[in-house]
């Protein structure tokens, strides 16, 4: 999406030429292939771990950090932890770097615009995307970094709920706030609530 915004704002006349359906398909396939490779790597590494009989994962789903925590301590646990952090850094640093680079180009293009209305429209479009991206990556980063520091499963569960449940639920709401009708309806609702019955 960051690349799509970059092309739409920085190269609007060439948008149709650059953002072809074939390029979109290749970008989605590349994302899926990369994530599939990371998942396959972790599955193969997790198969080397041993667990005690009756082991329970103190979490609401089988998150990688929690599975590694309950494994019997051996050399493969350390390999899994190292690979978890390496893959997490690669799967977070690369996308965040791309997003920040594209948005730095967008901001430099917006500064050169003379129309205030155009700047506002572009900033509102990019702002909603950035808020969802940073909410997702921030909570995900918190879960994986806190798993090394804290042993509290309740704190980790709260952060996991943020990036697995709350972010996807907020995503349509944040993007719909760009719609004038939704903004007006939300304003009327808030006025009705604040004025009382």
Q: Helix amount, in percent?
A: over 70%
Low-confidence stretches: none
Give the overall shape, derived from the CA principal axes.
Answer: flat
What can be said about the biggest beta sheet? none
Count all strands and give the number. Answer: 0
Q: What would you call the structural class?
A: mainly alpha
- Work out the strand percent: under 5%
Summary?
The chain has helices spanning 2-10, 15-18, 21-46, 64-69, 75-112, 116-149, 153-176, 180-195.
Give an overview in words.
The chain has 8 helices and no strands. The chain is flat. By secondary structure, it is mainly α. Helix 6 packs antiparallel against helix 7.
Features:
80% helix; flat; mainly alpha; 197 residues; 8 helices
Helices and strands in order:
Blueprint lengths: L1 H9 L4 H4 L2 H26 L17 H6 L5 H38 L3 H34 L3 H24 L3 H16 L2
């Amino acid at each position: 999406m960051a690349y799509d915004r970059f092309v739409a704002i920085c190269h609007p006349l060439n948008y149709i030429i650059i953002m072809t359906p074939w390029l979109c398909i290749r970008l989605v396939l590349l994302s899926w292939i990369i994530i599939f490779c990371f998942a396959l790597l972790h599955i193969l590494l997790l198969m080397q771990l041993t667990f005690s009989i009756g082991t329970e994962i103190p979490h609401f789903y089988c998150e990688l950090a929690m599975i590694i925590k309950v494994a019997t301590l051996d050399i493969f646990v350390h390999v899994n932890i190292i690979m978890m952090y390496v893959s997490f850094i690669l799967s977070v640093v690369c996308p965040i770097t791309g997003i920040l680079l594209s948005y730095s180009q967008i901001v430099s293009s917006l500064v050169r615009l003379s129309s205030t209305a155009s700047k506002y429209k572009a900033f509102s479009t990019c702002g909603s995307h950035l808020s969802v991206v940073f909410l997702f990556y921030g909570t995900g980063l918190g879960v994986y970094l806190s798993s090394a520091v804290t042993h509290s499963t309740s704190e980790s569960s709260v952060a996991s709920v943020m990036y697995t449940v709350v972010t996807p639920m907020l995503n349509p709401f944040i993007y719909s706030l760009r719609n004038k009708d939704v903004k007006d309806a939300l304003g009327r609702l808030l006025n009705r609530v604040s004025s009382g019955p």
